[in-house]
Amino acid sequence: MAKVGDLVTNFAVWDVTLLTPPDPVKTVAVASWGKARGRFPFGAQARPIFGPRWFERKTGRSLHGWKNLLQMASSTTQQDSISDALQPTEECLQQGDLVVQGFQALMNRCPPVDRQSWVLMWSVEHERSAEETRLFKKDLILQLHSRIVPQLHHQLEHLSESLEPDQLRRQPVSQLKLILEIQSQLCKSLDEIHSVFHITCPESSQSPPITRSGNDQHDNELKCYRLYRLHFFLQPSLLSELNNAFDLCSELILELKLSTQKPKYKMGIDHTRARAFEDTENSTVSLELAMEWLQRSDFQLVLDRWPGEERMVEDILKSLTSLIHQEPYVQVDGELYKPQELTQQVLKLVKPLVPIAKLSRLFLIRLSREMRRNGRPIYSELSSSQLMIFDELDQNISATLHQFLRMVEDGDGSRTGLTKQVFIQTAQQLQSHLESSCLLLFVYFIPCSPPDDPHLVPINHHHHHFHSWLINFNKSFDVAINNLLDAVGLSN
Q1: Which domain of life is it from (predicted)?
Q2: Residue numbers of the domain that contains 107
């Protein structure tokens, strides 16, 4: 232990303010220059107080007061060292081993290893009639939103508070018993979540049979599209974050030497605690998003699956335009290269592709805007298989346009096998994607007849405008496709 005189010149005092409830607590710890050695309560913010001049200016106390403060900090550090030297009791180690086992059991539920624990609930569900089954599943989804997810959110917050290192040092046995109780509650909540998914999505281990769900347009929250999207929303994000959090919580118990087992990662108490809190916090954020997700409309869920595709279409459009207006030289890594010149035959194909790419981009932008418009009901009259058409629309459009780009960049077709037949098939594929989505928009997205409610007149007027826009868009796109077919010499 350094002397107080050395501490005045060679050490810095850190003012640590605990920001979390119940009461703000200020503690002073001695820290080596650049590296804190005091123990800070979790959730605290620490800032260095360098030198006696700063202390005198801020507090009005003399240099003698500065030395007294350092002496107190030195005494606190010595007490911590003595406390650390105390060996945990046998009861404490037993409780710690149980806590470590409890975290391992929680990790096994994220994701579940198998489904044997839910077979009973599934068999009971099969004994119900079709209508009873539908109402039962609907009630499970309601419970997931109103009770299970908020309950899990609260339990995670409680777990994070119980893992405060100072509390575990002062009252290890009682704190470990508290953690065991929280673990038991978490196990029940996770089992309930898995049970909900097992009953509502019995084939969740396989690819979702959405293509076979052509008659669920009136199932609302029980549509296969919504259930499977919810399942895959929670499975990779929430459960993987919980798995990491429980692993780090277990590691913290080992780092504090409250178990007979040895630490696996040896990151240090402060770092392990911070990492465990971060992953637990991420899990609570995922739960909040899940609660919000359950209230999102069908079309909002579709748009969640459209990340960055509009930008990809924009990039393809720029690449096609640059092929028409080729620069004599291009710069790559600081060196100039002469690009491969396109043949006149390929240029004839590139030029009609530009308006097709522009119209495709325009369609995605306008459709995205319409789907985000307020006033849309949460549940549409589209079936799951029809929702999948919109779900995959942006990806299908960008993939088809990218295929066009690869074919024209290839030039002679040596790499892509460019032939007139391949080109026309790709064009027809793109046209099919847009036509199928437009048909669904006409039938389900735009009301067939305006309701009599006068408050909906502005909405009806907008629907009429969008209806006219779709008609004009289809005409323009048909012209663009025919121009492309003329360019390859296959138009009728």
Answers
A1: Eukaryota
A2: 90-295
